[in-house]
Protein 1
Amino acid sequence: MKHLCTTALVASFAMAAPFAPTAADAEEINVVMFGMPYTNGLRKLADDFEAETGIKANIDVIGQDVFENRITLSFTGGTGDIDVVHAPVIQVQRWVAANWLKPITAEVAAMAVKDDILKGPLDAYKINGEQYAVPFMAATGLMTYRQDVLEAAGVGVPETWAEMLEIAPQVTNDDRAAIALRAVPGQGFNMFIFPMIMRAYGGKFFADYTGGDLTPAINSPETLEALKVYIELINDYAPQGAGNFNFAEVNAAAQNGQVVFTVEGTGVVTQIVDPEKSKFADVTGIALPPGGPAGRSPAIAVHGLAIPSSAENPEASARFIEWAVSPETMTKIALAEPFSNFTTGSVAQNAEVIAKYDAVHPDFLRMQGEALNLAIGHYRPLLPDWPSLGAAIGENINAAVNGLMSPEDALAAAEQEMKDILGQ
Amino acid sequence: MTILQAPDRRDHPAGRSLARKRSMTQATSKRRGATYELERGYRRMIIPAILAVAIFAIVPLAGMLALSFSDYHLIRGSKGEFGFHNFARLLSDQRLVNSIYVMSVLSIFGVAAQVVIGTAVAVGLQKIVGKWRLGRVLFLVPYAVPHVAVALIWLSLFTPTLSPINAFFDLFGFTVPTFLTTQNGAMFAIIVADTWTNFPFAMLIILAALQGISTDLDEAAAIDGASRVKTFIFITLPLLMPALLMVTLFRFIDSLKHFPMIFVITKGGPGRSTQATNFYAYVQTFQNSNVAYGAAIAVLLFLMAALISFYVARLNQRVSQ
Amino acid sequence: MTEVKLDRIGKSYGSVEAVQQFDLTIREGEFLVLLGPSGCGKSTTLRMIAGLESITKGDLMIGGTRMNDVDPKDRGVAMVFQNYALYPHKTVFDNMAMALKLQKVPAAEIQDRVGRTAELLGLTDYLHRKPAALSGGQRQRVAIGRAIVRTPDVFLFDEPLSNLDAKLRVKMRMELQELHDRLGATSVYVTHDQVEAMTLADRIVIMNGGVVAQVGTPREVYDRPADEFVAGFIGSPAMNFLDLMRDDTGRWITECGSLVLPSLPVDAGARRQVRLGVRPEHIAVTAGGQPQGDLDYQAEVLLDELLGADALLSLGVGKARLLARVGGTDHPVQGDRVAIALTAAQLHVFDADTGVALRD
């Protein structure tokens, strides 16, 4: 039955995806990733890999939406046309549940680079004792703020979301809002940001995630309080139209000086503090994201490389991954691209890399390190169903932000939908 | 397909003689044999096309249909259930109802705007002669821009902090309302983007149809005493009807596939209020791993498109007669 | 019934003058034909009268009113187009009724007028058909009916018969003639077919290169063409032309001396060179005869073509070539030697440079 279904699935989506090239022989591998600084940088180095190993790597960097169609088609059909795949940690549980990925515990153990890789991100890819991917980056959440504005207003850097709410009216004027935050629905959009507030107030997704009790528990007074803070910030202290902001709009608002604060992923933060891109870069400070009564929980997003179970030449795939996360390759990309959130630790000791990111912002590498230390691996739950859970929660949160429903109703709806998805 | 025929084809001497020839061949059996040979030749020529349609349309369609009766889930696999359960679930799915509403609003208003604007621009462009005719190309530009790029352009135009429109009105102290944070506003934004990129298609077809209408008819109407407006309403418009119907059908069916605009501009938001049916099928299939249910939604969408095509084709036949 | 006056009308497109100085008064009830080769400006002139082309220069008066800037519908004209210009989506009735409906004529009256017109044109049985279901001749009748039903002051015809086959054309031509006799409306008719022009016209205007070459009755333009162009254009087959030079003795001879004329029928003044025109039907041919008079010559039949009632003979007179039209029975054939005779009164003489006909 399953075979019939997958064949049918492949057939029915066959027109949706571009025809993928298949590896002509053992000396050629296909790598499929979606666009970000690291993947763009890696593509440019494909010739290095061939020079080093004699294996030709066809590195395909595509849009995130196309990516999802493409890999779903390839994996359900078991076509074996992808040898190495970009694996966001948030998706890996789902892919493993669907039997899409090959366990690579032994391969990773044999890699010389393994001890150089940050342990937290590496362990995020461990499921039921098996390693399924190797991380190349770990983006974390950081706050940026306008030093000049805070000084002029005579206020300090907010340590908590409550302080943020107090300071916000004091730094707002006709031309400038206090803060910009991602709000558009999606597990990678508002659900990258909102859990920072939720966890600061003690809210949680499940009754006891670490203890194994996966009873949805998002409809709690703590999460409600957090949601009200999120709504107040976006509706009262963010620029007009912020209810539909994604990271691109947040980034632009900060670079154009339309907001004082942002809380964003490191990939966006590096652009906000980059003097070449933002005229306010030299007056922009970096701090940890605000915390709350329950502490501080910076967002984290880990991306890595994995081998599909249908890959025909896993040895070549593993060699590619080892090369791709090696300090040499990482250093090259860190120097060539705006890529600071590498997970290969020794790169941070490279003098050129330090000089480059110190020039962008002296606090950057240090704050990033601190945030990574504070971040919990399951900031967003590591579950096969997370993509659908995150989408359902994100849509309800966004509906509450834009006044389509009350915060209370939104959380109740989110919890009910979580139960439906998990079949409870 | 009669829909593709220029309105005055049968009025044209060549078309007429062709028609006459055809009826003559049917009358004389000797020539019927020759025609049969010819038709067989033609039939052989379309075999590759039939194969292509079979492979790329019918097989995936059959696959989708099979999936829609199954219970296949990307993560949980299948328990082997096979039946109408997905379709039964469709009936009580509030999100599906909303998605059909969103799709209808986007398609009806979007296609109407595209056809009206496309026709207006085509009529305007047709009057332009001489070297300025090249200006036509300018109106094709939006059609050539990839949909994702179009969506990004309009996303920034509808984002108050980025939009030059807002900046301009800010100079005078006016605040342009926010569109993307309300359902109606977001649907409006998607319709605008969709119209901008797709009206040139309507324009092209209408322009071609206009060129097929003899200018003598305009002149005859002028002498008969019709003003320009009346000439357009009583002469041009009825003659454009087959083309208008075709454009509307093509655009409408295409518009049921709303995706890039929604994906880029609103991500289905605010909330999930702009998740049109096609987008919702994507959400169920790829985001929620509910492949079988997603396929059932796609089958429903296909049936709606087929139904519309059928009725428009019938309408077209009536108009052509 | 209306007089149409074209007062030095001109039309130019940029620097190109399509019609120059068209000056003519079309009399009440007259059937005027504009004749000329394609591109001569005849259609442009008609369209200026209709109001479909703007008038660059001059004044157009219809029934005493200046019409230059009046909308086509207010000029009191009706037009029949070359390709009929019937509204394909309307029935014959609606096609004919369109103008009346636009004038808000009461429905009963429309019914009556269209009915009568249809009867006149034999279209009664076809009123509910669409143009696509009609033959070419029927469509042409509908186009004419659409013009008639409005009872306009002036009818304009733009090559109305040129899309019909030869047989039908003759039939429709006669019908048009009868119709005009019955209605008696002022008509302007554009054609490039000289037979239509000769048979239909009260007067013919022959145009060439945007200029009026001659205005006259069919008889006049045939008998007394104003210039070489008109002479060559009217008549089928076309007139023979021979270049003549005057020798010292005052005789006129062709270049190689094949033909010698003791004198010209008109006074050529001081000219030493003229062009002689002879219509093929004005050459008398006698088989085996000998030249007797001054204008008789010996000729050889180089080619003979039988047309039916007539035959065309290609004649060689020395080195000169002449085409003659003779009776179709027992005509001389290729290789025969014949005598030909010209008649002084039927000779046309033109200025060799300007082409203008010389007259006494």
Protein 2
Amino acid sequence: MTTINIDGSDYEVAAGENLLKAALSHHQDLPYFCWHPSLGSVGACRQCAVVQYQNPEDTRGRLVMACMTPVVDGMRVSVKAPNAVGFRAGVIEWLMENHPHDCPVCEEGGECHLQDMTVMTGHTSRRYRGQKRTFENQYLGPFLNHEMNRCITCYRCVRYYRDYAGGTDLQALGSRDRMYFGRFEDGVLDNIFAGNLVEVCPTGVFTDKPFSRTYTRKWDLQSAPSVCQGCSAGCNIFASERYGKLKRVHNRYHKDINGYFLCDRGRFGSSFVNSDLRLRQAGVRIEADLFQQVSIEAATQHLRDLADSGDVVGIGSPRASLEDNFALMSLVGEANFSCGMNDVEAAMMDQIFDLYAKTPDAVATITALERADVTLVFGDDPMNAAPRVALAIRQAARNVHFDMAVQAGVPTWQDAGVRGHAQHALSPLYIATPLPTGLDDVARQTSHAAPADLAVLGLQIADQIASPPSDDAEGFVANIARDLLAAQHPTCVCGTASAEPAVMQAFAAIITALIKAGRKPQMLCTSAEVNSFGVRRFAGLSLQGALDRMQQGSNAMVLQNDLYRREIPAMVSAALAGAGRVLVLDSFETATANAADIVLPVTTYAEHTGTVVNCEGRAQRAYQVFEAEGQDIQPAWRWLSDFEHIDDVLHACAALPAFEGLEAVSPEAGYRTATNSRVPRATHRFSGRTAATAHVSVHEPKTSVDTDTPFSFSMEGENTGQAGALIPYVWSPGWNSNQSLFKFQQEVGGSLTGGEPGVRLGFAPSKSSADGSASSRTKPATGEVNLIPHPQTFGSDELSSLVGAIVERCAPPTLWLNPDDARALGLSSRDGATWPDAKTTYLVQLSDQVTPGNALASVGVGTGQSVLPRDAVTLIKDSAFTPPPDLIARG
Amino acid sequence: MLSQLRTIWTILKHTFSRNETVQYPEEMPYLAPRYRGRIILTRDPDGEERCVACNLCAVACPVDCIALQKTETDGGRWYPEFFRINFSRCIMCGMCEEACPTYAIQLTPDFELCEYDRPNMVYEKEHLLIDGPGKYPDYSFWHVAGKAITGKDKGTAENEKPPVQVRSLLP
């Protein structure tokens, strides 16, 4: 630690840090623009000027940029010195010279870093009388608005987009005061982390387009801490509501998971809550295509009758919370409960559980992946499965930069210096996946093959680790083995998307070999859905077993699960047709709900409080944001159990051995802050309370009392000093933008003042005896191909695909084929191909990276199916097919 | 004795002074144009809605009696999808007018807002929006703002240079 003196007070700061970060870590109000905790310092904006004094006698000092000044023991600086204050005011005045008169019609207004800094420096009126510079805007796709007039040229956008997220199509263009931040022509920003520009831009150049359509000021939003439902990464989000609609999602900082950034699927896909397909009433089928609305009491009676029938199977869901799944499991009994994943995925989850249980210390957090010096991405493209994980891996590829900088004596936060010194050096990143990934540009070596071949490759890597290759051995396998063995933090990432247990088996072999070799590897396995790692902890039936029992006439209760997305449609239809009575609890109209006898509407993540477990085994609570519209909608656990409070369900669940320690997930409903207050969901300046519902009744409704959480449905309470899991939004006096986060952190980029949200659960070996060592796939006959599912970032996930902006971003159904196979089948690039039983025609893309005999097919939106046939199929050319235009085109 | 006589004299004297009572409502009092009464939404000189749904009136309102929702025309103009004032809560303080950056919301000298039913005191946009510019006949926010809308491209607002030619290499 180092001691520095700011304006007469001594502060302990971390040695080697820059002065700006040190000052902010002590919650000083020091304006800045171009600096960002994840992007480092470049000293471009000149806004963080302070006066540094030479020695105790020095009274004049000199102006320095705090972000570019390393802290030195005993240094004396002043933030409040008149010449520093004057300089900062001058910088703002000059930045505002061309700033348009837009605040009332700007989506950033009220949470704008530029507004905050302008007020903070005291600049109130524009003295400059010259004309304002203007720019034309660009179309940037369905997610982002572009308003270049508002730009202050801080360069944060390109530094984030290009340097951090690895995008290529956003540039700083032009010269002198014509600097333009955009694409070389209009078009969709193709990086899947582009949405973070909304939060990275200190003003309103890049704003959230879907949010803008039904815009609400930050102060009018009712928010709660939540967890993204897009994948198993479990990124923390602020979900915000107004007038009964989920308006937007912002990043909620978590030191070990998402840090400062989200992916676009999470940010823009979380508003599925507002879908037109929402179920709002309970219904009982009276005719083939006709449901009759029934009351809550009648619906509950139907549910009781079914539960008491003695022969009922319960099918849970990896997209439902632990509490909901637990309530269903308790109702139907463990022996009749299935976790709702298909058997292949369940087997892979069991393999992950076995591996995690065997090597608990090796399970990495997502931000720990950023510290890896050698990374192996194996079997699954994290850009599609869990995009935030891929962003962390991209940072790992840069680690060598920091080592080189330290050797050269350059501070690691000196962004331009570090990059300039390291040039194009990259830490070793190896990728072994079925198709090229979005990380291939920073990979040292890649190998793309069908999952069954990847499994073989993995076992070879494990063998090489066990018997290290000689130094001059060449080749993919030898290089990986050598680098992993030499690494400080050898890191391996895998996932379940390949639907091939042999891949996971090989991955486990690599980890085991590394541990046997005395290394300390880090690993992370991802899955497709938010609570896969939670629901798989419940023992019970396999999905196949459950469907078999349904086919033989058992009654069934299906919880938030569209079975047609889990198994071959014919199999599901047969089960639903054979079943006695089928009760579906879901938030949306799904194919399964349409085939049910009784449908009960349940709340989504934004309308109830629920616990989910992410891929690191971290249980986290997503708190209720607002009350669901519709009298019949209630959380599934309320339909299914007699528990009074969500905490009671959690306690009962925590009593199961698989959930030991779950109670610590977050503070209970009785938690109050130091001043004995609740935490408010609404900001202190929430407007319109006496008018918002006045058209319905002029008498203001009584504010609902939340009996399940420590939050209030109003502005009453205190949003400071609470536990880290209970931050509903960030705001601090003078800091209206999301930059106020540092006031909630112990130090910038460190832990939250109230501690990290969530609790990591242990893993126990699975009870299943499935042997996944051999590939289940056989070699296809001539003229046939094995179909391999290839999930997409946009469109393959069930929930986010309900959002219009996400659908706009989806690629057409695509089939990737090896050119040799294609030639044999008479197919060429951009032809249409299909197979018997396929629901649509696929666009053919040729890639010599596809192993002959295999075809990778996208799943989800547009394809009409999420489960592909497991047997080899014959592809048929669809000559009537017209290829769709390219995705990245002007809108 | 003297005091009583003086009191009688004073009272009798009033018989001949001018009557202060106004025969309201037959006789209407004069109220200054800046009197703070019933709230209206005005239009700009082009006849378009001035309100851009920025929410500043709602947040300035001390009794929280204004609620609105922003939406947008195809041409890019922001406007309120609904705009509701609950006059049974309004205290006619004029903070909304002071906060309004577009002169859309204005208070008028009409104070006669009595109703038998409280729900009738809830005014929607159709009740609030008038056809003229109110007290500020000339101001048009969109001609000052930098955001482009149909009929006003980039660089054509007041005091703006034409849009930058990004591809220019001139020094």
